[in-house]
Structures are given as structure tokens and as C-alpha cells.
Amino acid sequence: xxxxxxxxxxxxxxxxTARITCEENTIxxxxxxxxxxxxxxxPVMVVYDDSDRPSGIPERFSGxxxxxxxxxxxGRVEAGDEADYYCQVWDNIDLEVTFxxxxxxxxx
Amino acid sequence: xxxxxxxxxxLVKPSQTLSLTCTVSGDSISRGAHYWNWIRQPPGKxxxxxxYIYYNGKTHYNPSLQSRASISVDTSRNQVSLQMTSVTxxxxxxxxxxxxxxxxxxxxxxxxxxxxxxxxxVSS
Lengths: 108, 124
Prior knowledge:
The complex is a heterodimer of chains A (108) and B (124).
Chain A: E1 9-12, E2 18-23, E3 33-37, E4 44-47, E5 61-66, E6 69-74, E7 83-91, E8 96-99, E9 103-107
Parallel strand pairs in A: 1-9
Antiparallel strand pairs in A: 2-6, 3-4, 3-7, 5-6, 7-8, 7-9
Chain B: E1 3-7, E2 11-12, E3 18-25, E4 34-41, E5 48-53, E6 59-61, E7 69-74, E8 79-84, E9 93-101, E10 113-114, E11 118-122
Parallel strand pairs in B: 2-11
Antiparallel strand pairs in B: 1-3, 3-8, 4-5, 4-9, 5-6, 7-8, 9-10, 9-11
């Protein structure tokens, strides 16, 4: 198994762009998925397969993945984006799911 | 649209077996369009995938659970169940049921639909 490393917290002012990273040596060769979890609620998928958005997710949410870093980018951040964000991959060698430790996004 | 509802006892004693059910609506498990997963989250902590099952009974588990977890499916009731033996306080968590579309299962394995979760406390 491997470890996905996320920063514990990211802060951004409303209207600015937030970038949340997920690091692992070989992550650029994997499909990365991102989830948003607001307090007391279940996670919601916001990006899958590195950069695709499920229906209903605003275009402000985008993703990229290269080398050893995957990034979730949230443009024109709103107060309602304040949440924990988790990256996730499927390990096709050990055949298991790995989540990152999560990043708390604070909107200042 | 698939909807998931977890249910089960909120309190389990140490060393006993935890049993939870995920009731599926909006689709038939037998249609085979999804894999069905259990994921848990201890209070204040991150997410841990526990395992999945397909409609035909095919399962796969997180090795870290050391064979304590067992997932089953009842297609007649359109339900997926989780049993976890020999629980300890470390198993206290919110337990979620979540789906993976068939096209992604075991290849990219994302979770597109989640239930609201059910809190289980392990305490005497």
C-alpha cells in the first residue's frame, strides 16, 4: 500500500482560487478522485478520473494530475465551499482503496 | 437515481459483532450496474474503505481489517450488509454505504453515491 499526503489545512479569501494537493511518488500514473465533506454530512464526489466532474458539480471545481502531485483547484471560492476535501486512488497492485488524510478548506 | 440508507444499532459492546444494513432504492442490485462498498470514518478522522461486494457475491476487503469484516448481499430485499466481529473502541465510527459504477470498479474504483451514514459507538 502507499500513502497519499495532503496538507492539513488551506485558507483562501472569497473569490480567490484554492488549490489542494495530494502527493505520492507514482500518483501521476493513477486515476485520482476528490470528495468534499461538509460538517455532519456524507462525502460528495467533486472530481473523478483526475479532472472529470460529476453532473451537478460547478465548473469552478477542476482537477489535474502529473508526476507526484494531483491538485484539486476551486476557482472563485465561496463561503459554501468550506469543507474537508479528500483525495482517493485505487491501488491496482494491492487491490485496495487509499484515501488521503484530508484537507480542511477555510474561507477567510 | 440510486439512494442508499444505512441502518443498525448505534451501540455495540466490545468483543461483540457489529451488524449494519444498507437499503438500496432507485435501482436493483441484481441489475449489476454497481459495486457496493462500505467506508467508515472515526470521529474527527479520515475515511477508511472497508470492502466491496458485487451482486453475484464477489467480495474484496481492506487487508487492514484482518478478516474481521464480512459483506453480504440480499438481492430479494435489495440490501447490502456489513458484519464486523470482535469490535473494540477503535471501531467507533460513522459507517457509510457507497456505490462504484461497474465501468470503474476494480480499475479506478471511485464512489459516486453515498448514504447519509450511521454512527456506531463501541462501548460497554
